[in-house]
Design goal:
2 copies of one chain form a homodimer.
Chain A: H1 19-24, H2 26-39, H3 46-55, H4 62-73, H5 80-104, E1 108-109, E2 112-113, H6 115-119, H7 121-142, H8 145-168, H9 176-201, H10 206-233, H11 236-239, H12 245-248, H13 254-262, H14 265-276, H15 284-294, H16 297-315, H17 323-337
Antiparallel strand pairs in A: 1-2
Helix pairs in contact in A: 2-5, 3-7, 4-5, 4-9, 5-7, 5-8, 5-9, 8-9, 9-10, 10-16, 13-16, 16-17
Protein name (chains A, B): Octaprenyl diphosphate synthase
Cofactor (chains A, B): Mg(2+)
Pfam families (chains A, B): polyprenyl_synt (PF00348)
Chain lengths: 340, 340
């Protein structure tokens, strides 16, 4: 099945790509990639094996790119600090993915078999811990207590978001507010922290830190909302994991929150049976997708993502126009355009 | 079954207790306990629930006690720094236990049902991550980059030790050297770091930092060796987990390394079947204990622990005599006396 989220592209989304942003930080990212490779090294052979299985599977590395770009936006001179913090951010992300696979009992990640299937839950947990430790070591080397404060706080907020998600899982009564608290923690907080440390390194005033943080936070929310829509409306290729994983795991995401709210009694009974009681039968995923389309909630989810995208755009208003700012703005459109 | 590790007490072990050490740092530990309680707090109710299940189960809190005592030994004035680092160390330990339970698929921990049985693997992983994040936040508040460096490096070394243990698991050809590398990482490194940050806070010279680190490292090795002996020779009460857990998990510990080395061909076949192939039958644990006693390897393991205890004792030689030093020396004897 092809691309099925039934929404029109916004005018700025039509041609949006990450190309400009990627080109802008290409030198820095080459150093980030070298750093990532060298810091996954260990005499314990299983560690680089497991870490590189995930790292080499080619995520977009959006978070470290954002760190470098926000540092650049704030006139950072381009030392090793931003490179190390960017690598730290990517390690924190990778550690979260490894731990998430155990939590979600996932079989697939970034289009590959999940590490936990290949090496076991225990390796996923421990290699995640190793990468988290390495992330903190690099932050310490950079020596900015403010950046350490932001990223260590992010680590706890991410874990809180994930635990919140556990609690909300299978609960079809989850409100939109509850759901937003979950994704602010589990996804958007790391985007926010990744952006915020840029101006911190550049030693820019608090209002620029706040602006970059707000950009990252809103971009992160938009990004997650699109992911949630793609889980029901996209293809496995676009998603890098199995379509319908959220459904099979009983994960309550915004499309479900909205569908439950708008739904008929029969539909609610369907959601309760499948997501709450975990009683999923042949054809239920197709039925779920049909309901979501009928109720227009995938388009509604993308529309919410656009609203957060607009907030991210607004957050950058204080910064003077320029190539970096333009590229960061285009990244918003790109994240939303993934839904098409 | 009572106490069965067949070794004589050393003269100094006869009356050894932690009482002096505990009394010495009682004020500080009261503040550590308050800090621990307040820092497990979260709006996400499941977090304090899971964290406190383990934290309130009353471990000895040996590691934070060591941080306070080593700071005291080095003339630290007694500010909030040591309290926060001590609480960080305990959080790192608790996070490790939560993750270990998932890795080992344990049912019991500190005499209680393991958190992962009550709340699931996912909660154990995520609450461990939360505590690790909180540990780093407290370290950042203390503001010592040197202490942050020591503890973040410890986090990676611990994970490396645990992964090494995974690799060594079920491999009866594991050498004593391989085994020592495992326990240096998974256990002794945190003891070493807990001790080392004391003189760092007190801003004492490198040689005192090295001395405290060496004390902690050797004490940690001795501690783990006794634990390994108790797993075959102690009682569940003394151990806080099920006797024979290591055996059932195919964990290769020093008693096994020695027994395999000294063993007859029939005994080696027994170890291969039970530990390597995981084919454990009724009565095998009793048989394992009988072999270990016959080969005298539990006594040999305790003897090795005494040697590391002697190294820990020697490490403190540079420090002037006094109540704190005496109490730290007695702690060595206490750790070894657990085997009786």
């Amino acid at each position: 099945m092809g691309v099925v989220v039934p929404v029109e592209k916004g005018p700025s989304e039509a041609e949006a790509s990450l190309n400009d942003l990627v080109a802008l930080v290409a030198d820095g990212m080459a150093r980030v990639n070298t750093t990532i490779l060298s810091r996954t090294g260990s005499e314990v052979a299983m560690i680089p094996e497991v870490a590189n299985h995930l790292i080499s599977s080619g995520g977009k590395r959006l978070r470290p790119i954002l760190t470098l770009a926000c540092a650049d936006l704030c006139g950072y001179a381009g030392g090793e600090g931003a490179v190390k913090l960017a690598a730290s951010v990517e390690f924190m992300h990778t550690a979260t993915l490894l731990h998430d696979d155990v939590v979600d009992e996932s079989d697939m990640r970034r289009g590959r078999i999940a590490a936990r299937i290949k090496w076991g839950n225990e390796a996923s947990v421990l290699v995640g811990d190793f990468l988290l430790g390495q992330a903190f070591r690099m932050m310490v080397e950079v020596g900015s207590l403010k950046a350490l404060d932001i990223l260590s706080a992010a680590a706890t907020v991410i874990a809180e978001g994930e635990v919140m998600q556990l609690t909300a899982a299978k609960n079809t009564e989850t409100t939109e507010e509850d759901y937003l608290a979950v994704i602010r923690g589990k996804t958007a907080e790391l985007f926010a922290a990744a952006c915020e440390v840029g101006p911190v390194l550049a030693e820019r005033p608090q209002d620029e830190q706040d602006a970059c943080r707000a950009y990252g936070m809103n971009l992160g929310i938009a990004f997650q909302l699109i992911d949630d829509a793609l889980d029901y409306g996209g293809t496995s290729d676009a998603l890098g994991k199995n379509v319908g994983d959220d459904f099979r795991e009983g994960k309550i995401t915004l499309p479900i929150v909205l569908a439950f709210r708008h739904g008929s009694e029969a539909e609610r009974a369907f959601w309760r049976r499948t997501l709450q009681d975990g009683e999923i039968r042949e054809g239920d995923l197709e039925e779920a997708r049909a309901i979501l389309h009928r109720r227009g909630v995938l388009a509604e989810t993308v529309e919410r993502a656009r609203q957060y995208g607009a907030l991210a755009r607004e957050a950058l208003a204080p910064f003077a126009p320029g190539r970096t700012k333009d590229a960061l703005l285009e990244a918003i459109d790109f994240c939303i355009a993934r839904a098409h």
